[in-house]
Design goal:
6-stranded mixed beta sheet; disordered N terminus; alpha+beta; globular
Length: 550
Amino acid sequence: MNTFKKAISGMMAAALLAGCGASSIAAAPSAAASTEAAASSAPADSGTSDGILNIGATDTLGTLNPLNMDWTYINFYSMSMEFLPLIALNSSYNQVGMLAEPITSDDNITFNIKLKDDAVWSDGEPVTTDDVIWTILAMTSPEVANPNFDFSSIKGMGDDNLSPEGATELEGLVKVDDKNMQIVMKSQMGLNTFLNNVGTWILILPKHVLQDIPADELLTSEWFSKPTVVSGPYMVTDYDPAHYISYDANENYFMGAPKIKKMNINIEDGAALVAGLQSGEIDFVNPAMSNIPTEDLDTIESLDTIDVQWADPITNEMTYFNTTKVTDARVRKAIVMALDRETIMQGVLAGHGEVTDGFVAKASPYYDSSKENIPYDPEGAKALLDEAGWDGSQTIEYYVSSSDTSVIKAAQIMKQELAEVGVNININTVDFATLMSIGGSDEVDMFSVQYTITPSDYYADEASLVSGGAWTGGYQDDTVDELLAGTQTTTDTAELTSLYLQIDQKMEEDVPLFSLYFMSNPGIVSKKLKNAVPSLFGAFNNIQDWEFSE
């Protein structure tokens, strides 16, 4: 099965979204900067009184080099201000053109890409298909070898995800002319999967500027810290990865010069972000990049200077069993049945979420409302445990991230509810990096982590998490693999809904993982800021049109 491998999205963990993406998965975790450090390292220009846009975030920046990017949303959004992707998703999860017109395919093998005729770099040079081909070959070169994106499905690409050393062309990257090209896959790939990986996440770079930099110097080049040529609406002028990123407007942006000429992404901890919203120093908070502490939500919603918009609950507090440690599916299912997940969700998320099993969120066009969840049934859980020969002497080692305050609270409730059916769990709270390094290992019986999947495409994530997934102890099922393959051969909504439903039902049967809850996150916009909508996807697509009211 050829897949695009997703790294954990930037919205995946409290360190990343609650802190992705998203996206955000083997991505480097974000760590919130302290309030004092953020204050002492603030950009020189700040404050809306000067007409400067301040975006608040609680994720720290990992990189400003698109060749080295992961699936963390702050990395993606901060860089896509400068370097546009081919297309973007909007708030309805549909594709809209950025550098390219909407991408099409007639056979799920050949994907047709037409760059916009007016797409140009800030130096006036046209954006061409040579730039797209160069970017993909650079990311897959042996010298760069980005580990977070798997391009091995492209025809001519090595199964090791590397292009030939020094390659300037590839069989599956077909240049038709300067504005038209095709990407040809080795086997069928669903259009939504292609859009959600290559189309939206690969940030295209200017070949004419970077081609003379030796491949082994691309990852360390200082050019990316202060690029001289961009395609997007803004250009970085200064940054401190733990505290801020400052931008000036690209006056030559082909979609129109931004109305707001200076912008900062201010990186702060949750408490400082709340203080900034109260003082009016923060103008915008995107739900994919920031966490508002649950205890501060009432305060935020009471402010009359801002509008709060809750994102669709698509961020899943996924909980994984190591199936080599908790080997009996009856025990795994009993653990789920013993949890009053609806009450847990209401308590720890103040009701801003929902409970549904499997991957597919209710906001997805592929959600089947007839699907039944694993019920809350303590007596049924006891019966399953008795059937499995559970004697109560075992202890489940359960791990959560220290930065995910919601799941830490949930874990205490889970411990009490499980004890009532004879299951003892030991809660281990570790930092996000440790959680990612030990998840699925023999040290862990069960762990939870936030994970966001774009509601229009579940294939890549399900394939990496379910089909021999390391986090589930290598759980694999031939039926699931067949169903996943089927999602790549159709665009019919009803058929995709049926396929994803069957996968979710298999997860409820075998329980290698389960959803503790899906959470909604707040997006926030100052009432002084016009044309800005804080949605999970598409929020920045029109940032050039944002402006402050008089």
